[in-house]
Amino acid sequence: MQHNRNDEWDAGRLAATLGWIAVGLGATIAVRKLMGSTTDAEVAPRRSNRVRIERVTTINKPVHEVYAFWREFQNFPRFMRHLESVEVMGERRSRWRAKAPAGQSVEWDAEILEDREDEWIAWRSLPGSQVENSGSVRFSPAPGARGTEVRVQLQYSPPAGRVGRGIAWLFGEEPEQQIHDDLHRFKQLMETGEIPLSDGPSLWRPAQPARDPQEIRNLAGVRAS
Amino acid sequence: MRANCWYGTGNVQVVDVPEPKILNPRDAIVKITSTAVCGSDLHLYNGFVPTMKRGDILGHEFMGEVVELGKGVNNLAVGDRVVVPFPIACGQCAQCQRDLYSLCENSNPNAWMAEKLWGYSPCGIFGYSHMLGGYAGGQAEYARVPFADVGPMKVPDHLDDEKVLFLTDIFPTGYMAADVCGIEPGDVVAVWGCGPVGQFAIKSAYLLGAEKVIAIDRFEYRLQMARDKGGAETINYEFTDVHEALKEMTGGRGPDHCIDAVGMEGHGPGLAGAYDKVKTMMMLETDRAYALRQAIMACRSGGTVSVAGVYSGFIDKFPMGVIVNRSLTLKSGQTHVHKYMRPLLERVERGEIDPSFVITHRMKLDDAPDAFEMFTQKEDDCVKVVLKP
């Protein structure tokens, strides 16, 4: 692939430019906002080694439809970028497998702690899991028939060593952004039935058709629909 | 296939690239019969839009023949002749359902980039940066069209390409700029910029009942088009004090509605123009807003300022005090093309307008680099270039 960093607007240059604009305007607040201010999620691991994330989105579908889709945990790998599979092992138990770097994968078993139809699901990993994590999702009708508000809250403790690096990778360097993007995909899938695919996902390749569509899907972390 | 690709500021090249394939059930592949260079392509060409990557296929005004359909598209058939709106819209999110298609919440796969710059992401757009989806554009032999069950509109065979091509962008864009003004009988509309969008804004203002349209530019050939084809009165800002002239032409009231069809690369004479040029060069300001400031200052108290020109970042010396103290309404937005395409096609069919009047150059796709250079330098009285693959 040809590269000419002087001409190209990569993320770094965008950030640098935005920084300059903000400095020029004397607006340090804008810099903080554009660069992504320090969030709890980034601070938390240093303090307690525990990462806590909360994100919300609104989906233009009735609550029961959104809840039902979410409750089918097998659907998760369709919109969660790094998830490989979810195997439902019973009414309350499931096994989760995620891709990790270098062809590795990490696995954990989860159990549902609470499940209130069309309202709320809470879960946690079972003791002895490679990855200790827990979370919940709340579904509530948005005002004025605007669909369903979906509030996801999760926390995990990244273990040390190889698996720890795997977990860090699983949620990306910015876990909040990762969950935000996954929730956006959930919304896309629920509302449109598919996850739209860019010819140039992120800035990884130019906006040109790929010879092999699978290349695009791999870069986007999306399965064929 | 051949495609016109971006290779940096002032550098586009027509190169061989792979042909597009269906990636999703609601995709279609269109064999392009006509495509155009848009004024907003020049913002990419001149390096004003972030997140471009070398090799990006440009072009968001295109039409052609459906050659392949995903299994989820049931309202089109192979062989249909379609025009394709430049915004990509799903038709099912809350914004699409309010007819605000350019705000589609689902069509930008790279939404996070736009969110960093603008807070929330608008729709994806063909051939218009990675921040707006990283979609391959339509200055090519073929294009993949996502959500093809929502966007492409079939056009009747008896209307040739040149009469319907501009339904993809510039006709609806000029029309929406006038439509959002809420023009009433007796209203005077002033239009800054007599490029293709300005020309359509002039025509549209009359279609929507304006009493008089005043067009402002510095290129005599464009002002002449505004007079001859659009029926506008004109002001050349290089020789005339625009503010005073507008007052004079409106009985001292000022234009009821002011349309900025210039955008972020405006040229201003004198000190203010030099100020913006230096600031954008130093990256202390991203957009030059000379026309917009003047439009705000000139607008009748209680009037509407409608911004059709493209801005992408920050502007300086924005006269907020005028808006507040004189009760101006500011309207803007990328065009909700899907909303306007059919009614405007009907106007074309009824003979109320022939959009081909803006075309000054017809060229081969392979000549796209020459077309960009000519258009950006305003050479050979260029207003609009149509390319044939």
Order of helices and strands of chain A: HHHEHHEEEEEEHHH
Note the gap between the termini of chain A.
28 Å
* 3D shape of chain A: globular
CATH uppermost class of the largest domain in chain A = Alpha Beta
Gyration radius from CA atoms of chain A, angstroms: 19 Å
Description:
The complex is a heterodimer of chains A (225) and B (389). Chain A is of the alpha+beta class. Chain A has two domains: 12-38, no CATH class; 49-195, Alpha-D-Glucose-1,6-Bisphosphate, Chain A, domain 4. Helix content of chain A is 36%, strand content 27%. Chain A is built from eight helices and seven strands, in the order H-H-H-E-H-H-E-E-E-E-E-E-H-H-H. Chain A has a seven-stranded antiparallel beta sheet with strand order 1-7-6-5-4-3-2. By secondary structure, chain B is of the alpha/beta class. Chain B has two domains: 2-85 and 125-169 and 335-388, Quinone Oxidoreductase, Chain A, domain 1, CATH 3.90.180.10; 171-332, Rossmann fold (3-Layer(aba) Sandwich), CATH 3.40.50.720. Chain B has helices spanning 39-45, 94-97, 111-118, 161-164, 170-179, 196-207, 220-228, 242-249, 270-281, 290-298, 320-325, 337-349, 368-377, and strands spanning 2-6, 12-16, 28-37, 56-57, 61-69, 81-84, 87-88, 124-125, 142-145, 153-154, 188-192, 212-217, 233-236, 257-260, 304-307, 329-332, 361-364, 385-388. In chain B, the strands form four sheets. In chain B, strands 3, 5, 6, 9, 10, 17 and 18 form a seven-stranded mixed beta sheet that branches. Chain B is globular and about 60 Å long. The model of chain B has no long low-confidence stretch (mean pLDDT 95). The chains are: A alpha+beta (225), B alpha/beta (389). At the A-B interface, helix 1, helix 7 and helix 8 of A face strand 4 and helix 3 of B.
